[in-house]
Amino acid sequence: MTFSKSAICLAITTSIFNVTALAEEQASNDINSTDNIETITVNSDFRQQSLQNAPTSMSVLTDIDIKQRNAKHLEELIAVSPNVNFASGSQRARYYQIRGIGERSQFQEPINPSVGVIIDEVDFTGIGSVASLFDVKQAEIFRGPQGTRFGANAIAGMINITTNEPTEDFEGTVQLGVGNYNTYDMGVALSGPATDSVNYRLAVNQSNSDGYIENIYLQDDDTNNRDELSIRGKLAIEASDNLTIDLAGYYFDFDNGYDTFSLDNTRETLSDEPGFDQQETAAFSAKFTYQGFDSATILAIVSNAYSDLAYGYDEDWAYVGISAPDVIENPDYAYFEYTSTDHYYREKAV
């Protein structure tokens, strides 16, 4: 039997082959694009793993997110993570809340906070004001109880910040920013090999600003200022083929003003005794990793942090004499006033 090939049949056959070829090409492109997708690794679990495989509700904010938002402090990055807030009432956020659980008070510190803050294996829970983001690799936000990994300070969740590690090749970063209200930000980070078995990294950041509040009673425009210094140093030591030692030291000096309470809900205040929000912290950590066993890795971490904290504000929001007859608009309320300031000083060792 002989079949004749019409023009319509040939056209249909050709179109089928074309569709098949396009489908194969598209599948090949999808595979290549999948191979190029960036893998985000969770660093704070017992084992490093991909974010997709992490068995917990969490958000990972990388250095790309930090640069895109020009974030200088953790509180500026928290807003992009769902179900996470921070407590105001101070110049910098000190306490955080996850899913509505967490401390809010600057006045009564809890024994075991509900939300922990970890920076490079050092516990900064309750003293998270120093969470500067200069030279930070990524921030991981765990939602829900994390007591198995982090202990009693993580009932509601945990915020884990990882800074950049020492590198085998020399590299450096310089950051300079200038803004209104006499704002400037300067940072320098250097990294490279010290010897064949030791690598180092040093990061220094200074940030200053007068703030956008003007105290019209004192005729001063920097009562809500920021003066923040952050210094981090790291050493990565290859002690043997199976043992590595990571040493890190930190120094933070945040000497900030706090004057935001306005009777007219504006950027102008009348306080005669502006407040302050100060923190000086020195911390150290040592991490030992031994990989000499085929079926297990031994990890030991030792850390210590000591902080001096000072916090205060003008409780009456005004100055003595604000209700004097020659000042007050309604004479019926003349001399109806009081004056008060609150100061809190703490020392904390972890």
Structure description:
This protein has about 350 residues and is mainly beta. It folds into 2 domains: about 40-165, Ferric Hydroxamate Uptake Protein, Chain A, domain 1; about 170-350, Maltoporin, Chain A. The protein is built from 4 helices and 19 strands. It has helices at about 5-35, 65-70, 75, 145-150, and strands at about 40, 50, 55-60, 85, 95-100, 115-120, 120-125, 135-145, 155-165, 170-180, 185-195, 200-210, 215, 225-240, 245-260, 270, 275-290, 300-315, 340-350. An 8-stranded antiparallel β-sheet has the order 10-11-12-14-15-17-18-19, with no helix packed on it. Strands 3-8-9-6-7 form a 5-stranded mixed β-sheet. The chain has a two-stranded antiparallel ribbon with strand order 1-2. A hairpin with a 4-residue loop joins strand 11 and strand 12. It is elongated. The chain starts with 6 loop residues before the first helix and ends with a strand. The relative contact order is 0.10.
Salient structural properties:
five-stranded mixed beta sheet; 2 domains; eight-stranded antiparallel beta sheet; Maltoporin, Chain A; elongated; mainly beta; Ferric Hydroxamate Uptake Protein, Chain A, domain 1; 41% strand; 350 residues
